[in-house]
Design brief:
alpha+beta; D-Maltodextrin-Binding Protein, domain 2; Dipeptide-binding Protein, domain 1; 19 helices; about 30% helix; globular; peptide transmembrane transporter activity; signal; SBP_5; SBP_5_dom
Length: about 550
């Protein structure tokens, strides 16, 4: 899986299960689960000629998750929304540098506690009505509303106090303290038309797929489990105009039909994400460009710290030291991965190796178990049945068996795993996948996504009330409030040392996500280290 959290379809409320229904994260997990089987997939109408024809893309995740930008973590919907909606500031899909989108400029002083934005003159919604400051305030009021549970709240409520209307085309953002990293986070607050989404039932419509924005493409049709189509919005006057007259994005979660759609001389599509490692050379041999994006995508282990002996840090560390990561990368990931040496991936701007790095050391693993007074340990490893995760599980079992820990592998549908966690069922260890890069590469955002006193993941691990957890949360809050970038980076790196030592929820390997495209048809494609595609800077050859 590549979505940061596993996903299903829609729902409501603050709980994990309802959040999954909103986000569509389980659909993304399931999308990676298919093996290479007989070809097939949804039928679609294609116009594949260059210079104004239809761009046909294959997305390896479901398009039946929520399309509400304030809620979704669905890979398909988030990628689609980048083309339909705008924020005050957008960010480059790779570097994540902010640039003016609906606003006319990035604030000159990002350390100020008030940011002023002027909206682009002539910006219009896809129904032809003008974009105004009221629309901006409307969206931020929803995000900051203490009575409304949204995913976006977690990215803004800690540092953003309020958003004020100055006049029809000007707004002010009032910060609780200087927070320069907030500029890049603004891309997560897609501005939505108040006259559309303030109507009764409109948020549920957004969850089901209704999308009306101000971006370069408008949503032309939406067919859950089949495809979503886009058309260039002729009245768009923003910074990145549509290069394709029409786009047809197919959702094909099974690996074989997804690969078949972009294979051979009669290929129906020009680009696909989520390419299986086993098909890379086949596609390259057929003339496709296949490149990977390396980022936070990872296999992690999460321990139930209320289930002995996993309350003992030495046991958690022992199980990490026991894993032969080099074998896992070679056999399961076909070389497209790196052993985790920090919670962050090596390409993250805030990365440095953690003080505790879990190199392959079965002797040390045995010593730690002995120190903890643990012998004859039997572990049931509950795991999501995402294809690349299940490929990695035999290496974990062999590694743990080799140090005398008798291991049972228990892969299940992602929905089943997280339903059990929601219901607070007992478990020992979970293996799953995560990728916070869908939201950004900022270390503070990534770490708060995974750790925090009210964090869902910490609820699953049952660790948040421990003394070490409280120390961590204090250090995290202090780092968030630090406005000096150099000092903040050091503070984050230091508290990641604590995270690495405790190994409550911690990555084993970081792996690449592969994208394939036809270089004879498309230029300007850059593979993302997170699910989906972004073609705002692409064009026909």
């Amino acid at each position: 899986m590549s979505d940061p959290i596993p996903v299903t379809r829609d729902g409501d409320g603050p709980g994990r299960r309802s959040f999954l229904r909103y986000s569509g994260a389980v659909g993304a997990a399931a999308g990676l689960g298919g093996g290479l089987v007989a070809c097939g997939g949804p039928e679609s109408t294609n116009e594949t000629g260059g210079g104004g024809g239809t761009l046909t893309a294959v997305i390896g995740y479901g398009n039946d998750g929520s399309w509400d930008p304030t809620q979704t973590a669905s890979a398909f919907a988030m990628a689609g929304n980048e083309h339909i909606y705008e924020a005050l500031l957008g960010t480059d899909p790779i570097s994540r540098e902010p640039y003016p989108q609906l606003a006319t400029a990035v604030p000159s002083d990002l350390k100020a506690t008030t940011w002023k934005f002027e909206l682009r003159a002539g910006a219009k919604w896809h129904d032809g009505k003008p974009v105004t400051a009221d629309d901006v305030v409307f969206v931020f009021d929803r995000i900051l509303d203490p009575e409304t549970q949204t995913l976006a709240k977690g990215f803004f409520a800690g540092w953003l106090k309020e958003v004020r209307k100055v006049d029809a085309r000007n707004v002010e953002l009032v910060l609780k303290f200087p927070f320069p990293d907030g500029a890049a986070r603004l891309t997560l607050a897609k501005i939505m038309p108040k006259h559309v989404y303030s109507r009764a039932g409109a948020w549920e419509d957004a969850t089901k797929g209704k999308a009306i924005g101000s971006g370069p493409y408008r949503q032309a049709s939406h067919h859950p489990k089949s495809n979503t189509t886009f058309e260039a919005y002729d009245d768009y006057n923003g910074p990145r105009r549509a290069a394709f007259k029409k786009m047809n994005w197919l959702t094909i979660v099974e690996a074989a039909p997804r690969v078949a759609k972009i294979s051979g001389g009669s290929a129906d599509a020009q680009i696909s994400d989520n390419i299986p490692y086993a098909n890379i050379e086949q596609l390259k041999g057929g003339g496709m460009t296949v490149e990977g994006g390396a980022g936070m995508n990872n296999l992690f282990l999460m321990f139930n710290t209320e289930h002995k002996p996993f309350d003992d840090v030495r046991v958690r560390q022992a199980l990490h030291y026991a894993i032969d990561r080099a074998k896992m990368i070679d056999v399961a990931l076909k070389g497209h991965g790196k052993a985790a040496t920090s919670f962050l991936n090596e390409g993250n701007p805030s990365y440095r190796p953690a003080r505790t790095v879990y190199g392959y050391d079965p002797k040390k693993a045995k010593e730690l178990l002995k120190e903890a007074g643990v012998s004859g340990l039997r572990v049931n490893l509950m795991a999501v049945n995402v294809s690349w995760i299940t490929d990695c599980l035999p290496t974990i079992k062999a590694s743990w068996d080799a140090i005398g820990v008798r291991t049972t592998l228990d892969p299940q549908e992602t929905t089943a795993v997280f339903t059990k966690l929601d219901q607070k069922k007992d478990y020992q260890v979970v293996a799953a996948a995560s990728n916070p890069n869908q939201f950004g590469i900022e270390a503070d955002l990534i770490m708060h996504y995974n750790y925090g006193p009210e964090n869902i993941w910490m609820g699953y691990a049952r660790w948040a009330r421990s003394a070490r957890a409280k120390e961590l949360f204090r250090l995290m809050d202090k780092a968030t409030r630090e406005s000096d970038a150099t000092r903040k980076k050091t503070m984050v790196q230091d508290y990641i040392d604590l995270v690495a030592e405790e190994a409550v929820l911690y990555p084993v390997v970081h792996n690449e996500l592969m994208t394939a495209w036809n270089p004879k048809r498309l230029s300007g494609i850059r593979p993302q280290p997170y699910p989906g595609i972004n073609v705002l800077q692409a064009q026909w050859v």
